[in-house]
Design brief:
InterPro entries: Spore_coat_component (IPR053167), Spore_coat_U/FanG (IPR007893)
Keywords: Signal
Strand content: 25-35%
Helix content: 10-25%
Radius of gyration: 37 Å
Number of helices: 1
Protein name: Spore coat protein U/FanG domain-containing protein
Order of helices and strands: HEEEEEEEE
CATH topology: Immunoglobulin-like
Number of strands: 8
Structural class: mainly beta
CATH class: Mainly Beta
Number of domains: 1
Distance between the termini: 94 Å
Strand order of the largest sheet: 1-2-7-5-4
Oligomer: single chain
Amino acid sequence: MKLFKSTLIATALVAAGFAGTANAATATGNFQAKIVITESCTFSTAGASDVDFLSKARSSAGDVDATGTLVVTCTSGTPYTIALNAGSYGGATVTTRRMHNGTGVGVSVPYTLYRNTGRTQNWGNTAGTDTVAGTGNGNAQNVSVYGRVLSADTNVPAGTYADTITATINY
């Protein structure tokens, strides 16, 4: 029986030794975190304003100036240009746009849109020539549109005249 106890104790010690010397295994692997950021630009109506020439009497002298605002948001670092079309009146050009009152062909008020406060740089739709360039910063950016109606061009029948301009942002 003594031999049996000794064998049993020895077997228990050997089994405990194997359990204590078992190696833990590890493995590693790699993965990536990825995102694709694309450039984007949008116009916003919040904070934007029309070029509103308000009212002018036909007989009063002096040009009529007005300023409007486009609100552009582009991703940070995105270069862009803004072009303005000739408007919705037939025969208008980007140098001589026309507001009309809808009463008939030929009844219109010519006006010009500019890129600068001095109203010397026409705003059209030819990239690198008469568009406005900028770089996005990720926030809404205000871009002013300056307009002028020459005094001589207001000798038209009384009424409300309007035009719709399409602004296009290229980025």
